[in-house]
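Quick start: read one record
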Amino acid sequence: MQRNQTNYLTYGSMMIALFAILLAMSVYVPVLGFFTSFIVPLPLAWYSAKFERKHALFVTVIAVLISFIIGGVFGFIFGLLVGPLGFIIGDSIRAKKSKLYMLMATGLSLLLMTALQYILSILFFNMNVLKQFITTIEVYYEQLGNIMSSVGQLPEGYEELVQQSIILIESIMPSYFIGAVFISAWLYLIINLSLLKKLKLDVPKFPKFMDFRLPKAVLWYYLIVSIFSLFVSFEIGTFGYLVFVNAALILRVLLFLQGVSFIHYYFNVEGWPKWSMIIATFLAVPLYMFTIIVGVLDLGFNVRGFIKDRYKK
């Protein structure tokens, strides 16, 4: 018992020190800090995978508090993001959770902490990043309008068109924000799990992208949203418009991924070379709507099952 407690304290102190060093490099070293910022959660992830949850939680809290001493307010904000990430990754490994579970857990953690920091920045620092972003876009469109007006090329109804574009950008910001957060969580997972694997930890793997399958409920949600778009019109800028636009965007992105996954599956079954699969993936972007239709057909009619049965025969 005494030995276990000694190990808990010794390794905990070492991981906190390593976390502090990586965080300091991320905050104060301009170029190298960009790369080290992705591995700051690594010490806490390793520790959380090796020791009990209560010990790992205690070490994580201490590490986050020390981040304020090292990097001030900015260091503390960054510590609040990466500290819980390390704990979640390590605890998931210890509990033998799937990689998809890790992605959802880390993504939700990043989403919650980022949203909390955004609210606090408005309340205490009177700094609204999204509002500043919209202001920058407005200035850009205003300058562009002045340039076109000076050469006599300003289109009719330009101001109204700009206003609608800005409202649309404001409306879809939540979707882009959520997407960016989950992409960041995926990057953190890819980098840290590969390093943890080199440290002899048994880490889970993502299934192949060609095996990616959405729940069929996503198709029903998409059909409901599509039907609503035919019979119900929301006034631009209202809450209903905000919900509808973001729901439609997220569902289309998911079905687009489903369509690309089917393309990968089909190319693999046909035995076509990987370079052709890469080209098809790039072509799927300009053929966005066609790829979504492919995703809908794959999800709704189990096209993969038909292809699999055909090749069995």
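The chain has a mean pLDDT of 83.
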